[in-house]
């Protein structure tokens, strides 16, 4: 039988995998391939937390393939060179992959497709990652969207219950003599002579397609009910936590939408379902923005902020923020949750981002870089859009209304202090009334939490006023 290479990247699943299905439909023996070439994604090669997840996800994919009679062939080096070697070794007649949408990946994939097609090879790419690819959504004037609400009004009617192909029960075996590395050979885990900083992650996560399916089922049975309101409370299991699985393609957004829409929800739950779908819409919108405005991974979407008066970064303040030692409990709790689990609740992400970009007035790139290295769901589109949204430099920006008060946010969304006490245990003995702003209760803080900072690294009120003054400049400039 003829062979086809199926190039896995961030589509690490067997169900609803268009590239794999296309190879099978054409009558080929699929040769599943992963090529480790992080330098080709520069300057956004995967961060440390993403690498740790990737290692386990590759192992899970290989196990799933072997259970069906196949295996994952792992290579490392230049992608085109390794593909050419595999074509020669297998006499493959076709190459299939699922599309990526980051600027570096688009350029690389375009070059590979053009080069191999010119030699007569069948090369096809497919959509496995988005509900609506960026070039399929336009304004009435044929332009890309810059505001979420009209974008979502365009995309939402397209969603429906679609058949989601199951994983093949059996797969033909690729040639047995193909060289393959083990996932452990790729240097994805922390070095043996360094602390295993990721060890705590795996009590919270199960990388791979099975882990994604379990989370989706748990969400539909539980947190989907009341999602619209409950998702704002970080001390509760009230979100899907599917973001890393979606990023690595262990579940498709189409499968998630179909599973949601296929259920007969009570009328009281339907607003929750619509809100969840709109959150998937924000993921789509982020990819839409990055595709049409690729410079935004490094630069502001809104040109009014080109000369914005960012503060000179103070290494001491940046380190306090990164390590959860700012003296502001909700901020410190979020940063410690991130370090311990590789993830942070979305409400708290906005609070810690606002604190960095507004109260410390550090450029949003400092935060984006740290999240990129520490989040297991570090996605260039989502990370960029999220940070620019909070900083006020991106789409849907209203900076004057987005200086989050960390005290008010803690009082509203962690009123009993469960979240703060979990991640900042030195504050556990403080009464609820002192937990959101412990510096206002100096005697209690000194007596019950002597290891915690006596006061925030910046004055919250003064830094807010300074941010408002700084943002008044871009507000008055004419739009570009």
From TrEMBL:
It comes from Arenimonas caeni. GO terms for biological process: photoreactive repair; response to light stimulus. The lineage of its organism: Bacteria, Pseudomonadati, Pseudomonadota, Gammaproteobacteria, Lysobacterales. This is Deoxyribodipyrimidine photo-lyase. Binds 1 FAD per subunit. Its EC number is 4.1.99.3. It catalyses: cyclobutadipyrimidine (in DNA) = 2 pyrimidine residues (in DNA). Residues 2-131 form the Photolyase/cryptochrome alpha/beta domain. It comes from the Bacteria. The keyword Isomerase does not apply. PANTHER family: CRYPTOCHROME, CRYPTOCHROME CIRCADIAN CLOCK 5 ISOFORM X1. Belongs to the DNA photolyase class-1 family. The record marks 310, 364, 387 as: Electron transfer via tryptophanyl radical. Its cofactor is (6R)-5,10-methylene-5,6,7,8-tetrahydrofolate; FAD. GO terms for molecular function: deoxyribodipyrimidine photo-lyase activity; DNA binding; FAD binding. FAD binds at residues 227, 239-243, 276, 377-379.
């Amino acid at each position: 039988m003829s062979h086809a290479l199926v190039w896995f990247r961030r589509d690490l699943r067997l169900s609803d995998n268009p590239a794999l299905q296309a190879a099978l439909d054409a009558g080929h023996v699929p040769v599943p391939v992963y090529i480790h070439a992080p330098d080709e994604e520069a300057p956004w090669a995967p961060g440390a937390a993403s690498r740790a997840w990737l290692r386990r996800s590759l192992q899970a994919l290989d196990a799933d393939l072997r259970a069906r009679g196949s295996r994952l062939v792992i290579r490392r080096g230049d992608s085109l060179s390794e593909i050419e070697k595999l074509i020669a070794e297998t006499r493959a007649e076709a190459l299939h992959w699922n599309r990526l949408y980051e600027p570096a990946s688009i350029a690389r994939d375009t070059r590979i497709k053009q080069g191999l097609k010119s030699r007569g090879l069948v090369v096809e790419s497919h959509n496995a990652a988005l509900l609506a690819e960026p070039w399929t959504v336009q304004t009435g004037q044929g332009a890309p969207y810059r505001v979420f609400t009209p974008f979502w009004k365009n995309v939402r009617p397209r969603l429906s219950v679609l058949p989601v192909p199951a994983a093949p029960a059996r797969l033909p075996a690729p040639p047995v003599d193909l060289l393959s590395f083990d996932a452990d050979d790729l240097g994805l885990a922390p070095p043996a002579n360094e602390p295993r900083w990721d060890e705590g992650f795996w009590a919270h996560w199960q990388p791979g397609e099975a882990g994604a399916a379990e989370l989706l089922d748990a969400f539909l049975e539980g947190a989907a009910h009341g999602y619209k309101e409950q998702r704002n409370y970080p001390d509760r299991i009230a979100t899907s936590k599917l973001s890393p699985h979606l990023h690595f393609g262990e579940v498709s957004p189409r499968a998630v939408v179909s599973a949601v829409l296929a259920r007969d929800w009570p009328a009281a739950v339907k607003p929750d379902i619509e809100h969840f779908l709109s959150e998937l819409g924000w993921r789509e919108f982020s990819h839409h923005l990055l595709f049409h405005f690729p410079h935004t991974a490094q630069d502001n979407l809104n040109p009014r902020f080109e000369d914005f008066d960012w503060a000179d970064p103070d290494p001491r303040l940046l380190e306090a923020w990164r390590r959860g030692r700012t003296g502001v409990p909700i901020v410190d709790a979020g940063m410690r949750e991130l370090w311990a689990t590789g993830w942070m609740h979305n409400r708290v992400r906005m609070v810690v981002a606002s604190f960095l970009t507004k109260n410390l007035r550090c450029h949003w790139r400092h935060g984006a870089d740290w999240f990129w290295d520490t989040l297991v769901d570090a996605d260039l589109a989502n990370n960029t859009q999220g940070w620019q949204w909070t900083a006020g430099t991106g789409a849907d920006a209203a900076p004057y209304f987005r200086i989050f008060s960390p005290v008010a946010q803690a009082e509203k969304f962690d009123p009993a202090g469960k979240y703060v006490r979990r991640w900042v245990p030195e504050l556990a003995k403080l009464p609820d009334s002192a937990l959101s702003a412990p510096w206002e209760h100096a005697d209690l803080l000194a007596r019950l939490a002597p290891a915690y900072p006596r006061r925030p690294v910046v004055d919250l009120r003064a830094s807010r006023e300074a941010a408002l003054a700084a943002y008044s400049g871009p507000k008055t400039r004419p739009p570009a």
